Amino acid sequence: MTFGTPILLAGLLVPVLALAGYLWLQRRPPHTAVSFPNLAVLASVATRSSWRRHLLAGLLLATLTLLCIAVARPRIPLSTTADRATVVLVVDVSVSMNATDVAPTRLEAARAAIGSFVDHVPGNVKVGLVAFANDPEVITPPTTDRHALKQGIALLTPGFGTAIGDAVARGVELVRSSTGESGATTTTPAAGKPRGAVVLLSDGTQTRGVLEPSDGARIAKLAGVPVYTIALGTLSGTVTIDRGGIPVTVAVPPDRPTLASIAAATGGSTFAVSDAGRLSSVYRGLSSVVSRTKKPREVSAAFVGAAAALLAAAIGFAALSAPRLP
């Protein structure tokens, strides 16, 4: 919780002093005797339990405390759809995506899941699509045009090589250019200026590229862009490739540790997925996570309302517990 006018929190000294004064009055011995000509009144006063007095005092002190906090304009971060948010989907299209351990193939499952993401993400969020094998290629620049994105998804075709580090860096570059921060010199996100996120899907180990995966993660971290990673496929997955006219079966397990390290370094999350249903579920979940941000919202009215409720409770309790004259 933050405060718009934190200096006014000094007002909390008022309920603290009031509490101290109340405790002092409770411990001070009476100096004079009071005569009660009416014994019924005396009996009523004498039998009033001390917990009622303490409860009433507590309600009044709590009311005063809430009002002192309210004047300092308290703010709490609330989740909301980010303005000008951009999400870049970075998809591995190496030949290993032809593996059938994720039915019907890894690539077909990825197309369907990404399409589900596009359908569920808020309409005001820009979404870009990058495919990578030997090199990252921008298929669809960040846009709110969902039809263009669907056309880009249909163009995903397998290639050779896996350049994870370069792909992450390209995705971060698109996020920054889309949010107008490509020329920024700072290495931390601007306050109140969400940059969005990168969602990286890969099913293998890096075999190509200039940048190592750790280099891509470092670039994303410095830019303040979280990378959410999805390791697609089973550890026993294989694919058959043609080598000089001879079909060769090659093991293509996903590199889960590397993808997890990228997510951990950038503040994202990682997912290990081995079936199409789970992949679609992950993308649908990410469609809300990566498009939302936390913004501070003033909640002074809530504190005033709570104080009013406590004051009403104190008045009602005092009226019900007051002694009745016979």
Explain the overall architecture:
By secondary structure, the protein is of the alpha/beta class. The strands form 3 sheets. The protein has a 6-stranded mixed β-sheet, with helices on both faces. A 3-stranded antiparallel β-sheet has the order 1-2-11, with no helix packed on it. Strand 8 (238-243) and strand 9 form a beta hairpin. The protein is built from 10 helices and 11 strands. The two termini are 52 Å apart. It folds into 2 domains: 2-76 and 297-321, no CATH class; 83-290, von Willebrand factor, type A domain (Rossmann fold, 3-Layer(aba) Sandwich), CATH 3.40.50.410. 44% of the residues lie in helices and 21% in strands.
Overall number of domains: 2
CATH topology of the largest domain: Rossmann fold
Indicate the low-confidence ranges by residue numbers.
184-194
Mind telling me the CATH superfamily name of the largest domain?
von Willebrand factor, type A domain
Structural class: alpha/beta
Task: Report the principal-axis shape.
Answer: elongated
- The CATH architecture classification of the largest domain is 3-Layer(aba) Sandwich
Rg? 32 Å
In short:
This protein is of the alpha/beta class and 326 residues long. It has helices at 13-27, 39-47, 50-70, 106-120, 146-154, 164-178, 213-223, 256-266, 276-289, 300-321, and strands at 2-3, 74-81, 86-92, 126-132, 136-143, 197-202, 227-232, 238-243, 246-251, 270-273, 292-298. The chain is built from 10 helices and 11 strands.
